[in-house]
Amino acid sequence: MRQTLTATLDHRAGCTVLTLVGEIDHDTRPLLDGLLDGLPARLPQAGGPLRVDLRGVPFMDSAGLHFLVELRRRQTVGGGAAPVLLGVQEQPAGVLRLIGLDGLLGVAA
Question: How many CB atoms within 10 Å of residue 106?
Answer without folding.
Answer: 16
